[in-house]
Amino acid sequence: MRDLKSYIAKRKSRDPEFAKGYESGYQEFKIGVILKMAREEAGLTQEQLAEKLHTKKTAISRIENHAEDIKLSTLEKFAQALGKTLRIEVT
Predict the structure, then answer these.
(1) Positive/negative CA dihedral, 24, 27, 28, 33
(2) Whole-angstrom Cα distance, residue 80 to residue 82?
(3) Quick one: which of 31, 33, 55, 90 has the fewest CB in 10 Å?
(4) Strand, coil or helix: what is 1?
(5) Can you tell me the distance from the alpha carbon of 80 to that of 4, in angstroms, rounded to the nearest whole number?
(6) Which residues fall within 8 angstroms of residue 19, CB to CB, at 6 or more apart?
(7) What's the CA gap between 18 and 11, in Å, rounded?
(8) Which residues contact residue 66 at a Cβ distance below 8 angstroms, ignoring those fewer than 6 apart?
(9) pTM score of the predicted model
(10) CB atoms < 10 A from the CB of 11, how many?
(11) Three-class SS string for 25-76?
(12) Other C-beta atoms lying within 10 Å of the C-beta of residue 28
């Protein structure tokens, strides 16, 4: 989570438009960043992950950059392809 906070602070400082709309888009952004970080931690490129999911690299990019309307089933497949499990909490 520390990496995520650091990334957000850096992005806010260099992108005024991002900083302005940050709060409204935070949840969608956070999901995409978490997915990207998990993919990178697994040592996979977008192309490699796309192959595992039988999709195109552009689909992976869309998920990581615009995760505002992602299906739960897609999140589950993404996690499984990375050798991870999906956990959802209501707090």
Answers:
(1) positive
(2) 5
(3) 90
(4) coil
(5) 22
(6) 11, 12, 13
(7) 7
(8) 28, 32
(9) 0.68
(10) 14
(11) HHHHHHHHHHHHHHHHHCCCCHHHHHHHCCCCHHHHHHHHHCHHHCCHHHHH
(12) 15
Per residue in 54-88, pLDDT (tens digit) is: 999 999 999 998 877 789 999 999 999 999 999 98
Rounded CA-CA distance 36/23 in Å is 20
Indicate the average pLDDT of the chain: 88
- What domains appear along the chain, each with residue ranges and CATH number? 2-81 (1.10.260.40)
Where residue 29 falls among pLDDT bands split at 50, 70, 90? confident
DSSP 70: -
Q: Which residues contact 13 (CB under 8 A, 6 or more apart)?
A: 19
